Request: fold
Amino acid sequence: MKSSNKGWVFAFWFYFGILIAISASAYLKILPVKSSVIPFYDTIGHFVLVGLAAFFSHLALNKRRINFLNFSLPLAPSLVVICSIVDEFLQRLSPNRSFDLTDLAANLVGILFFYWLAERWNLNKSSAHRGAR
Reply:
């Protein structure tokens, strides 16, 4: 692992812990449901929370790609897509959660948007600043 990458790896694992806590709280019915005064807070939450997972994971893995059926796919965002789809379908089995295509769509759009941002992030930016000091 490059020393310049350690910060992204730490950020990813820290954020992953937050996501697990939020997900567990939702499955345990600890999170408030439909109580926010912010319109579409749930959809916005899906977009941002899952999108940031794609962002941090893509940078933590140095934008690693895999070849799948003659396509070069970004590894981390692809894994986030799979986890997002599996989680949304698992919600059908939970008495405290419900499957929602809008949530899944928000997840996927968030993944695409934050992947796009991560692709534009210069991984050498932080190491270049350290070297200049």
